[in-house]
């Protein structure tokens, strides 16, 4: 189990929560949070995923 | 809640992504090729789908009068333009289907190649002003302090009222001030012409003028 991937999953869930909140309640605060914090967290999570997969493919799989 | 197809796509993609995330967090599978593909969908493709469709849905939602009126200091402006009894320019235009529920955005957005971008930057300024200067104020305190940042440009009116229609040119005041209107030196929304867009706001800012 890779800790980075678990963190990425949690960040993705938070990001998706913010994005869905902005769709369900399209008022200024949720919309701005989704487009800034939400998308930032989502990008960070994807970056962690790519980093982990690249390391795994290079045979430098991080410790479980 | 927005019930547009885009919103449904965004929420469905988010739901599917969360299922993948929960599966990974609970089951803790080995990092095999299948796991990587599942995570690529859960962390990459599905959230990207939610973000893009959610952004479009968000941009559409931001055009609505409900969105503009959701900050308490803008509520009177939204209510005024939705008031069927109001004779202000904003209300008269909001009754037109071409403006409708998006009448705030239609009249206050910038036009031109980068109009959407400059309008969004202006919206960010509104959010800043509201958060740091207006959020704590009561309506009575806030309304006298609210001013349009730049004079309302006639070019916004001219987009529909071209100033070339024969019916429009039959009006003497239009003909006599045609150059000034097109040059934005005389505002269509001035009191001597078509009146203030939001009469209640004009009365707050110019009480002496209204008392006459």
Can you characterise this structure?
- The complex is a heterodimer of chains A (64) and B (212).
- With 64 residues, chain A is mainly α.
- Chain A is built from two helices and no strands.
- Chain A has helices spanning 3-24, 28-57.
- In chain A, helix 1 runs antiparallel to helix 2.
- The longest helix of chain A has 30 residues, at 28-57.
- The mean pLDDT of chain A is 90.
- By secondary structure, chain B is mainly α.
- Among the domains of chain B are: 5-62; 66-150, no CATH class.
- Chain B is 62% helix and 0% strand.
- Chain B has helices spanning 5-27, 33-62, 65-68, 75-82, 89-94, 103-108, 115-134, 139-142, 154-158, 166-169, 172-176, 178-182, 199-205, 207-211.
- In chain B, helix 1 packs antiparallel against helix 2 (33-62).
- Chain B starts with a helix and ends with a helix.
- The mean pLDDT of chain B is 89.
- Classes of the chains: A mainly alpha (64), B mainly alpha (212).
At a glance:
The complex is a heterodimer of chains A (64) and B (212). With 64 residues, chain A is an all-alpha fold.
State the distance separating the first and last CA atoms of chain B. 45 Å
Tally of strands of chain A: 0
Major sheet of chain B: size, sense and barrel closure? none
Round the mean pLDDT of chain B to the nearest integer and report it.
Answer: 89
Strand/helix succession of chain A: HH
Using the alpha-carbon principal axes, give the shape of chain A. Answer: elongated
pLDDT averaged over residues of chain A: 90
The number of E-state strands of chain B comes to: 0
Please state roughly what percent of the residues of chain B sit in beta strands, choosing from under 5%, 5-15%, 15-25%, 25-35%, 35-45% or over 45%. under 5%
Major β-sheet profile of chain A? none
Element order of chain B: H for helix, E for strand? HHHHHHHHHHHHHH
Task: Indicate the overall shape of chain B.
Answer: elongated
- Residue windows where pLDDT falls under 50 for at least 5 positions of chain A: none
State the helicity of chain A in percent bands. over 70%
Number of helices of chain A: 2
Indicate the low-confidence ranges of chain B by residue numbers.
none
Which structural class do the helices and strands of chain A define? mainly alpha
Spatial extent as radius of gyration of chain B:
24 Å
Gyration radius of chain A, rounded: 14 Å
Whole-number total of structural domains of chain A: 1
